[in-house]
Amino acid sequence: MSGHHTAGYLARLVEFARSASPAQMVGIGILTVFVISFLAGKRDKNIANTPIHGYRSIFEPTFLLQCSRMRCSIAEKFKFKDVPFIVRRFDTDYNILPIRYLEELRLVPPTILSSKIATSYNMLYEWTDLHFLIRSDLHANVMKRKLAPELSQYLEIAAEEVEYGWKIDVPQSEDWVEVDIQEILRMLVARMSARIFVGEPACRDPAWLRVCLDFTIDAFTTAFLIRMFPPLMRPLVAAFVPARYRLKHHRAKAEKVVGEKMKKHVEYMQRKKNGESTDDYEETLLDWMIEEANEGEATLSEMANRQLIMTLASVHTTSTNTAIFLFELCEHPEWLPMLREEIEEVNQQTGDASRTDIKRWHRHLDRMDSFLLECFRIHPPILLSPQRVALEPLTMKDGTHIPKGCRIAFANGEHQMDPEVTPDPLTFDPMRAYRKRQSSRLQHDRNQAVLTDLTNNLTFGYGNQACPGRFLGVAEVKFLLARLLTEFDFKYPEGKSMPKTMYADENVFISPSAKLMMRKRKVN
Predict the structure, then answer these.
(1) What is the dihedral sign for C-alpha 6, 11, 14, 19?
(2) Domain-wise residue ranges, the chain
(3) Which terms are listed as keywords in the entry (predicted)?
(4) pTM above the 0.85 mark?
(5) What is the pLDDT of residues 216-227, one digit of tens each?
(6) What's the CATH architecture for 3-520?
(7) Which pLDDT score is estimated for 91?
(8) Between these two residues, 28 and 506, which has the higher pLDDT value?
(9) pLDDT of residue 144
(10) Does 330 appear as a known binding residue?
(11) Where are the alpha helices (DSSP H) in 102-241?
């Protein structure tokens, strides 16, 4: 088509837009809705004969269904929990499987059903520049093989960093003062994670700590906004998402921090080779990643990107779990004396966390662990867990066929609120798990917050692809709570109560504006 003809068509379109009646404009709007719905609604990678939940009419546009609250759709359809069903998100369909399939899928290798690919798709890796999630598991593998065996040592290092930041981040007021407890906890966890991941001096650099907090928000915002549009529209939409441009600034800072650490690592390795003392050098997770990386993984940009994704997975999750614990404790203050008594008993038996092995110390906090597990149940960070993408077709024992490319998930939020799984599920009962663990020797090692258990805890996923950082995260939560509850009193501001729960697709979070009152504890 020539430029002359194109200009002519554009001129006619502009003229029509100027002269169209309201009825014509409404008609065009409806037509546009149906075109977008068609483009966004094509699906061909679902389990055969699986009903799509939520349509109220055959004429209802798909995008209206995608705009509906996923929480309601899952809750409504979970009444029929023994059969698969589909819920729609803007960018994909989720095939929700009955819980009975979970054990069968537990050990299916990631080459067939992949949690990593599901995460990368959720993060819209092509628009958030997280391509490495598709290619490699370096950071997750290092956490499993290196961090887990040395967890005690690195928890002690993290505790040192909390000590450094305690009077910087935590108000030391003798009188009641209103605080943004979520921001306080984010800063403390960011310090702990930064010390373990990249070490000093980055862990005390305010600009790096800010990146650790803001990258997560900007990455999720970018992915959430862009995936609301059909693939053909995304290049245009992406150009108008400010959070996407902020990601570039975060990466520039990450490359500076990581680049400096990589230079120090080279010097460290040379000193070791020369037989010189290296006692003054503190190894970090980044050091381990450099040593384990292949040629493609060892580039500066990729190492920086991996540091950012690790902060995404650790800082906000851990700080939010800690904040929810405190909010629920203020809602149910009758449990505070018991928790403080347990902390004191454990300190007397083992020494407090500052003078003992934190990894072993926190395992003795059975009641705190049970309280935390009940918080996970009432406030799951995600409604659909675990999630997988089928990289190869898979047929289940009962003949259900999962085609290649299918997105599957389990309704963990509703499952954990099922009366057949949790008696009286609407009641906040923080000693559920504690009573189970005390009931028999067989149960004593089960029902822990770090364990992935079919009956009551899918917070960290399940099976061979469960979250590798859960042991670190739970230990950090308990360490922070023990110190906070020992040193401070907490309550809600006048007229306030448990913050509102908010949803963005399957993601769950509490109101970011929620505050608490705190003061230095008055001990008689």
Answers:
(1) negative
(2) 3-520
(3) Heme, Iron, Membrane, Metal-binding, Monooxygenase, Oxidoreductase, Transmembrane, Transmembrane helix
(4) yes
(5) 999 999 999 998
(6) Orthogonal Bundle (1.10)
(7) 83
(8) 506
(9) 86
(10) no
(11) 102-105, 115-122, 125-128, 132-135, 138-142, 151-169, 181-197, 206-226, 234-238
Kindly list the distances between the CA atom of residue 113 and the CA atoms of 43, 391, 393, 406, in Å, as whole numbers in the listed order.
19, 6, 9, 9
Q: Cα separation of 305 and 138, whole Å?
A: 12
358 — pLDDT class (breaks 50, 70, 90): confident
**CA nearest neighbour of 503 among 41, 69, 82:** 69
The token duo for 260 is 């400096």
How many CA within 13 A on the CB side of residue 310? 29
- Residue 381 preceded by cis peptide, ω within 30: no
Beta bridge partners of 501: 510
The candidate with the shortest Cα–Cα distance to 507, out of 319, 323, 317, 324, is 317
Peptide bond connecting 386 to the previous residue in cis, omega within 30 degrees of 0: yes
Q: pLDDT by residue (tens digit) across 463-493?
A: 889 888 899 999 999 999 999 999 999 999 9
Residues 6+ apart with CB under 8 A from 496: 514, 515
DSSP state letters, 473-501: HHHHHHHHHHHHHHHEEEEPPTT--SPPE
**Closest-CA residue to 71 (of 409, 507, 509):** 507
Judge whether residue 59 has pLDDT over 80.
Answer: no
159 in Cβ contact with 476 (< 8 Å):
no
- What's the whole-number mean pLDDT along residues 340-364? 79
The residue among 342 and 74 whose pLDDT is bigger is 342
Q: How far is CA 508 from the centre of its chain?
A: 9
CB-CB contact of 431 with 370 (8 Å): yes
